[in-house]
Design a protein that fits this description.
With 318 residues, the chain is mainly α. It has one domain. It is 72% helix and 0% strand. It contains 15 helices and no strands. Helix 2 packs antiparallel against helix 12, helix 5 packs antiparallel against helix 14 and helix 6 crosses helix 8. The radius of gyration is 18 Å and the shape is globular. The N terminus is likely disordered.
Length: 318
């Protein structure tokens, strides 16, 4: 995804996952009466539009890599999303009687570092691999968390299916880009860590309310990544068109999909929302084909299909 800001804090099969990342997704909440045009649109359509926006944004980021170093684009994307989310949720004023204790700060900092590291590894991966392949490899992380957490036969089958897909994709690319495969799997591992920490953030009422924990995590993640990435973003910071493009990537890849997800998850049962997650590797493949002219091979298509099947198998609520 890019899954940076559209990941949920829970893996497919327990709460639903996605792209930035609200901690509790797919709750069985009734739809809002009336409301804007967005609230009147079918929630499945909102999900698909958000997914396309997310991965078109990732595809545009790849095009920027020729002008701005990869890590610089990744940081500016995180920074832009953090700025918008902080202005939206005002995390310095926790809901209710919440206070920023040392324990909360450490939890949110870990959450944010996992998020920022996941985004950085993902962007470094899509600089070396096709977009759909990188997303499919990254899915190994949350699928593993789900399977190892529930240990049902269905989730064990999902893990085995995902492993087969990952091995097939790795076999296709490890000779040409072992670093790309390693970075995509590292992004998946960080995504798994993000899932685990996200559960803890969601369990804290003050942090989970209005996604303030997520916003604070984005800010702290951007700060943590700055020493490594900010120097690489100088060219973009000195060029208004490049800076605007990088900010646009952040909005397209994180803020817009995240906002649409909020509406979709409020109107869909959790299991159905989780099932839609299976579309993401396929959506990323389509975006890569359209934006970057990345045509998957037969083996890549089979590997991505296996990951899609694994996600669908794991998308249930016990």
């Amino acid at each position: 995804m890019d899954v940076a800001a559209r990941t949920s804090a829970s893996p497919p099969g327990t709460a639903a996952r996605r792209a930035a990342a609200p901690p509790a997704r797919g709750a069985d909440t009734p739809p809002r009466a009336g409301g804007s045009l967005v609230w009147r649109m079918p929630p499945q359509l909102l999900f698909v539009v958000g997914a396309l926006t997310q991965y078109v944004g990732a595809g545009l980021a790849v095009l920027l890599f020729e002008r701005v170093p990869v890590i610089g684009v990744a940081w500016l994307r995180v920074l832009a999303a953090a700025a918008v989310m902080a202005a939206w949720t005002r995390p310095w004023r926790l809901a209710g009687d919440g206070r920023w204790s040392g324990e909360r700060l450490r939890l949110v900092a870990g959450f944010g570092i996992a998020l920022a590291g996941m985004n950085a590894c993902f962007y470094l991966a899509i600089d070396r691999l096709p977009l759909g392949t990188a997303v499919a490899l990254e899915f190994a992380g949350p699928i593993a968390v789900t399977a190892l957490g529930s240990r049902t036969r269905r989730d064990a089958l999902a893990l085995a299916t995902a492993a087969a897909g990952v091995l097939l994709l790795a076999d296709v690319h490890v000779a040409g880009s072992p670093a790309g495969v390693a970075l995509a799997l590292a992004a998946g591992a960080l995504w798994a860590g993000y899932v685990v920490l996200g559960h803890r953030v969601a369990a804290d009422r003050a942090l989970g309310a209005s996604r303030q924990g997520l916003a604070a995590a984005m800010v702290l993640g951007a700060v943590a990544l700055a020493p490594f990435a900010a120097p690489s973003s100088v060219d973009a910071l000195l060029s208004p068109p490049l800076l605007l493009a990088c900010v646009g990537v952040g909005l397209a890849s994180s803020v817009v999909p995240y906002a649409l997800d909020q509406v979709a998850m409020a109107r869909l049962p959790r299991a159905r929302f989780a099932l839609l997650l299976a579309l993401l590797p396929a959506t990323a493949t389509v975006a890569g084909l359209v934006v970057l002219q990345q045509v998957p091979s037969v083996a890549e298509t089979a590997g991505i299909a296996l990951v899609v099947c694994a996600t669908a198998l794991g998308s249930h609520v016990d």
